[in-house]
Amino acid sequence: MSKTIAIIPARGGSKRLPGKNVLHLGNKPLLAHSIEFAKKHSFIAAVYVSTDDTEIKNIALQYGAKVIDRPSTISGDLEPTVSALKHVLESINEEVENVILLQVTNPLRPKNLLEEAFSIFQNKKCDSLFTVSRDEHKLGKIQNYTFVPFNYKIGQRSQDLEPLYFENGLLYISKVDLILNDVIISKNAYPLEVNHIFANIDIDTQEDFNYAEYLYNKNHNS
């Protein structure tokens, strides 16, 4: 059976929401939600956290993840996520075939999402898979101070729009060979549609965190 690992990149620096990866959502740090989500799945052989931060490292170890210390050279604001994934793969002495990328900023995920995604990934023999959600907005561009509709005609009903989708960040699955070639989503990646309220959470600001907290409390209490 091919070996699958989960990697959670978690840098220490966050300008818009300082210390966001260690903020408490419910009774645990944001990072812990993704670690615990990964560890619930028996097909994941190990969970790795890539970080340049001591506090994040300690939390990761506390919740049972393995930690790969990320060098400062690949910890900058503009560094692509694939650099951290590639560094983890090059740092561990293990044969791995599949990588599941979980982002700390997407802490809430539908319960059976990963089982469904991994089953599709295997059955369709994908080289990569990522989650998307339908966007119901009437979108347009502003050109020379004029609004130019993009996906509709003025007066068209929302329910008649041509479907458009956005990358929601809930999870990604990729073959190791892709990542070692600096790619997470290939051209023929499978887009798994997930139209769930949790797909609207991507924490980057205090307002995003407040919304995540609201949904977490509502879901947890129910």
Tell me the layout of helices and strands:
Layout lengths: L3 E6 L14 E2 L2 E2 H10 L6 E6 L2 H9 L3 E4 L11 H11 L6 E4 L11 H11 L4 E8 L4 E4 L2 E4 L14 E12 H5 L9 E4 L12 H16 L1
Parallel strand pairs: 1-4, 1-6, 4-5, 7-11
Antiparallel strand pairs: 2-3, 6-10, 7-10, 8-9
What this model shows, in words?
The mean pLDDT is 95. The relative contact order is 0.18. The chain is globular. It has a single domain, classed as Alpha-Beta Complex (Spore Coat Polysaccharide Biosynthesis Protein SpsA, Chain A). A 7-stranded mixed β-sheet has the order 5-4-1-6-10-7-11, with helices on both faces. It starts with a strand and ends with a helix. It is α/β, with parallel strands linked by helices. It is 28% helix and 25% strand.
Keywords:
single chain; 222 residues; alpha/beta; Spore Coat Polysaccharide Biosynthesis Protein SpsA, Chain A; seven-stranded mixed beta sheet; two-stranded antiparallel ribbon; 11 strands; 28% helix; 25% strand; globular
Q: So, the CATH homologous superfamily?
A: Spore Coat Polysaccharide Biosynthesis Protein SpsA, Chain A
What value does the average pLDDT take? 95
Q: Structurally, how many domains make up the residues? A: 1
Largest sheet: 7 strands, mixed
SS-derived structural category: alpha/beta
Helix proportion? 25-40%
Number of helices: 6
**Rg for CA atoms:** 19 Å
CATH class equals Alpha Beta
Estimate the global geometry from the Cα principal axes: globular
Write a short abstract of this structure:
This protein has 222 residues and is of the alpha/beta class. It contains 6 helices and 11 strands.
